[in-house]
């Protein structure tokens, strides 16, 4: 394949680049080196285009000779301030739209999506079956009531794994922009006969994770605290559930999906998680243990944009494309704590 890799200089992109090259593909990295992520901008060189996906001319030129596009370029994170809302829409929704209209004769697209499109994960009530909890209420969170109750009877719910056909319920600006990108890509595929695979990444961690930015994932935040000799601060009661998937397993999923595109339907979405449910408290404890640092503290703090539990089944990706994650959390955490290396 000759691949244009947008966001190829970022955390996930660097690993995807490495994996594609290792498998013998030609890769052109297209990255804006946005200053809120990258401290420095390198000089352009063969195989590297410094450009913004919102620049239609630059993207159109970059398509020369390309047969597959992997679109990772995005503003990531939770949507820390409402002030960011237009930047999410511009970087992610508009960025994807401009990329799509500039694809020309390229028919194969992998789109980096996220578990955030689902909002809260799957929940079951003993009496009411599968239910969708409402938005989290400040008064509940402030009083330490973190578990969402059944919207009909108020009973405790059992969290479970979401599958790709679950209802979409984006709960912050980032989530809305990522879902919008999926929808735009699906519209492109319908109109052009192209094919898109949307990969809904779970909590990605591993070497090269961004540090010390408000947009950093929790594993990097905990690692930074330990490196400063501080205690990792676990929000809520630490029992919120996630799935931490190693960045090299994610890179393998991207590569596999890209190679399979010529034989795929117009639009497919796959969850990409390790398959192991972990609580944030467990991740903090494992990181602290592996680092030999202070044990974590459970603070009861909360962030309004956070969901309580989100964990997904990645069986579809395993069954249809033969993807198999290689890292368990313990091995992955050792890797995260080691030297940053590829
Ligand atoms: C993360 C990603 C999001 C991605 C999604 C995929 C980030 C910032 N968010 O969202 O881009 O699409 O996974 O599922 O990378 N927490 C603490 N202490 C802290 C910081 C956070 O306990 O210092 C808790 C949060 O309250 C939350 C959990 O850790 O319950 C996870 O937070 P975070 O790493 O931001 O990830 P998600 O919100 O799951």
From TrEMBL:
Source species of the chain: Kribbella sindirgiensis
Taxonomic superkingdom: Bacteria
InterPro entries associated with the record: Epimerase_deHydtase, Lipid_A_modif_metabolic_enz, NAD(P)-bd_dom_sf
Domain NAD-dependent epimerase/dehydratase: 3-273
Name of this protein: NAD-dependent epimerase/dehydratase family protein
Signal peptide location: none
UniProt xrefs under Pfam families: Epimerase
